[in-house]
Amino acid sequence: MRTDDAGPPWLVVIDPQHIFAEPPSPWAAPDFDAILDPVRRLAAAHAGRVVVTRIVAPARPAGSWVPYYRLWPFALVPDDDPLYEVVPALRDLPAAVVTEPTFGKWTAALRAVTGPTPRLLLAGAATDCCVLSTALAAADGGAEVEVVTDACAGSSAENHRRALGAMSLYAPQIRLTTTDEVLA
Fold first, then answer.
1. Is 15 left (phi over 0), alpha (psi -120 to 50) or beta?
2. Cα end-to-end distance, the chain, whole Å
3. Pairing of strands 10-14, 119-125
């Protein structure tokens, strides 16, 4: 399937932050705790090739972000607010950290770490927002993307399934896999 030699895959753990992990955050993913062990197992297997991303609010929302943060004002806090901290269970991962004020993390900062057309393993939260946005942009940019389904948590079980269904439509650029398949 490879058309060039991008090397071993990069594990990108998308937004494993309090804002997605814990009520009372309205963005808390109900299955967030279930992804912690798969993410740790994947990180151990991909040592030296792990990136953790963080979403933060922009200093000054512009464009479509203005009405978005009117709808979700609780999230319009500085990037050092506890809401935006990586959860303790994953804080110690030896990883590069990429922080962006966008859902999608396929940005110049991430490409500077992984290269322009890498093989990516995506995990994290939320499947139906930040994972989906990252996967589509990365695949469109030429990266090979594998979404590790049991290492992702959606805003609900149904939204998780729907997002995976949407991403499956992009095969072969985006493939769905599991932690056990990756580690086999």
1. left
2. 18
3. parallel
> Is the model's pLDDT at 178 over the cut of 70?
yes
Task: Answer whether residue 43 shows pLDDT above 80.
Answer: yes
> Residue 137: pLDDT band by 50, 70, 90 thresholds?
very high
Q: For the chain, what is the mean pLDDT?
A: 96
What is the DSSP annotation of the chain? --SS---SPEEEEE--BHHHHSTTSTT--TTGGGGHHHHHHHHHHTTTSEEEEEE---SS--TTHHHHHHH-GGG-S-TTSGGGSBPHHHHT---EEEEESSS---SHHHHHHH-SS-EEEEEEE-IIIIIHHHHHHHHHTT-EEEEEEEEEE-SSHHHHHHHHHHHHTTTTTEEEE-HHHHH-
